[in-house]
Amino acid sequence: MDALFLAEVTLAGLGAGALYALTGVAFVLIYKATRVVNLAIGEILMLGGYAFLGFAAGLGLSPWLALPLAIAAGGALGWLVERALIRPMLGESPISVFMVTIGLGSILTGVVQLGWGADPLRLPEFMPSAPVFIGEAYLAPKVAIGFVAAAVVIGLFLALFRFSRGGVALKATAADQGAAYSVGIDVPRVFSVAWILACATAAGAGVLVGAIGGISPTMGVFGLSVLVVVIIGGLDSIAGALVGGLLIGLVEALAGAFLGGEFKLVVTFALLLVLLMVRPYGLFGTHEIERL
Amino acid sequence: MRIGTLKTSYAADEALFDSSVQRTLLVLLALGAIAFPFVASPYWLFLACLCAINVASATGLNLLTGYTGLVSLGQAAFMSVGAYTVAVLEIRLGTPFFINLLVGAGFAAAIGVLVGIPSLKVKGLYLAIATIAASVILHFLFSHWSLTGESRGLSMPPARLFGLNLDQPFLLYWLIMPVTCLMVLGAANLLRTRIGRAFIAIRDRDISAEVLGIPLLRYKLTSFAISSFYAGLAGGLWAYFFRVVTPESFPLVNSIFYLAAIIVGGMGTILGGILGAVFMTLVPELLKFVANWATPFYPDALAALAPVRTIVFGGLIVGFLIFEPRGLAEIWRRLRRFFHLWPFRT
């Protein structure tokens, strides 16, 4: 094993990890604001990829116009889902709500299969394809772009949470819904905005993931890895999603390179089990104190 | 129609089937189940066996999720443990099938306890993910271990009873149906014991249960053990039914299927587990009929069958959770109440 190969694998892993982190942030955003575990995040991401394909290839729009449209479609879906499926479930047990999102994932998969067929498809090329070298290590250009885009969006989110009115409202809602209500924060609107932002982000991530690996109705499996990421990081921690995303991306890349592709999933899940035994609420998650 | 229930002894009050109407219905149902194989076509027998296997597994999951409140997405993985154990025993040792089934179920229960150990520390979604992790690891193990035939899987000979090969749905029905009935009865009875009441207390509020003196770890692990015992037994029956066990026989989607079955049927009721499993098994077949019927008008109907099944599956979960959270069992209860005093009062 030489250092260059290791460096390349590490870079590719970090690139994939950035996309995990981005989707993980979308997941955490919903969980933080609404306490809903959205297991359909992988399918929403998939829908983003297909929406991009539909706009770019189906309608023949320029990819640079199709990209914002796909993101907007994701946001619209988020709004619809929150209004139609999640709000009626307010106050129900968490198990019921997360089963609703599983059902939603199944519906989205079926719709995509019905519309585009079950075969994997490729997205139209729209990113520059000049190879990127960091030192001597080669990095696929799409992966590099994915990493940069994810980093920019996550940075934007962090700034938004810290400095904007909406971000503060979101943090207040996450901390204590009742208190947030009483100081005049429109909590239902916060829920709505969180879903719109998160689903738009997931759809954008879907375009990036699809540009790298192609899209197919089984792309929702990506959501399973994202789930591992957020569980390892802690469900309600944005920093956790970042660290967890990069960690899982790295572990998957290393396991894939040195053990073989079929080891990817099993290694990450084994890591997850060990971590759950040591830290039941993830690396940075809030340890909930239960009272009677 | 029944007017009221008058009970004059504690035994009558505690009886599992507490009214004569119920007992009559059950006898009729049992007679129907006995007569069914002699009148039904092999296709319907096949479906009946499949329903029975799914009922057994869903009832197990209902004990864990519906009664103890521990969400598991590993039921299909526990079934695979039972199925593989049965297949390996049948191929390597050729022991009688009832021993294989019991060993398979016992083995699944042991794995279930192992998977359930985190349940004391982690709850809710974290636990569900831990069970997903366990199923990923089991899937990996089965597809890489030479004993379990790696990714090719195992094909096994049929079960034998008195020199008779149980290889037709007609013969297997007599194995699967009674075993499932025993399992369901066992579950219903379990809930009337100390163990069952402890489960329910844990589900309703586990800290309160602990304060009341229920050892959480022991009962949570018991719940996991019983539930995966059921899954293992169902998996063993599944193996004898299909006689090919591959790593892809029990995907994660199947675990979701069982969870969906108890949600649609009604979590925390035995009847719900039965109704939900039967309903969810039959809906895809119903869609197939619709597709066949629609083909003359819409030639691509059969091609659209798989995606439509996926959509309907998701739609049923979402629809029941939003509009009928207590599931089919609640609908049944309403129907029954409507007919209590019918036709004198509606």
Description:
The complex is a heterodimer of chains A (292) and B (346). Chain A is an all-alpha fold and 292 residues long. Chain A has a domain at 25-216. Helix content of chain A is 73%, strand content 2%. Chain A has eleven helices and two strands, in the order H-H-H-H-E-E-H-H-H-H-H-H-H. Chain A has helices at 3-34, 41-58, 63-86, 94-116, 141-163, 165-175, 177-182, 187-213, 221-233, 238-258, 263-278; strands at residues 132-134, 137-139. Chain A has a two-stranded antiparallel ribbon. In chain A, helix 1 (3-34) runs parallel beside helix 5 and helix 9 (221-233) runs parallel beside helix 11. The longest helix of chain A has 32 residues, at 3-34. Chain A starts with a helix and ends in a 14-residue tail after the last helix. The model of chain A has no long low-confidence stretch (mean pLDDT 87). Chain B is mainly α and 346 residues long. Chain B has one domain (40-340): Orthogonal Bundle (ABC transporter involved in vitamin B12 uptake, BtuC). Chain B has 14 helices and four strands. Chain B has helices at 10-14, 20-39, 42-67, 75-93, 97-116, 124-144, 169-190, 194-204, 206-211, 216-242, 252-265, 270-294, 305-323, 327-340; strands spanning 154-155, 159-161, 164-166, 244-245. Chain B has a two-stranded antiparallel ribbon. Chain B has a two-stranded antiparallel sheet with strand order 2-3. In chain B, strand 2 (159-161) and strand 3 form a beta hairpin. In chain B, helix 4 (75-93) packs antiparallel against helix 5, helix 4 packs across helix 10 (216-242) and helix 11 packs parallel to helix 14 (327-340). The mean pLDDT of chain B is 88. Chains A and B meet through helix 4, helix 9 and helix 11 of A and helix 6, helix 9, helix 11 and helix 13 of B.
Report a brief summary of the structure:
Chain A has 292 residues and is mainly α.
Q: Which features does this protein show?
A:
heterodimer, A: 292 residues, mainly alpha, 2% strand, B: 346 residues, ABC transporter involved in vitamin B12 uptake, BtuC, two-stranded antiparallel ribbon, 72% helix, globular
